[in-house]
Fold this protein.
Amino acid sequence: MTAPAPKLPPIRTPVRSLPPSQQRTLQALINFWAVRKRAPTLMEIANYLGVTRQPAYNCLLALEHKGYCKRDKNTRRFGVTP
């Protein structure tokens, strides 16, 4: 039996130049990496934010377009860009 996943920290606002939904999504990516040491899937981000996949996907695509994150085509996970 595996141990339960560590609880993620609360969301904080990281970048003021982004809309609030994108700020929350970016912070969720940062928190997920900090706690679990791996990039999250779309569903993991949606669950963390308490939204369905579509709004989470829209925010992730916008963040990717702006250069804040990148999706791995093989694993389909989203990671924060340096």
Notes: The mean pLDDT is 86.
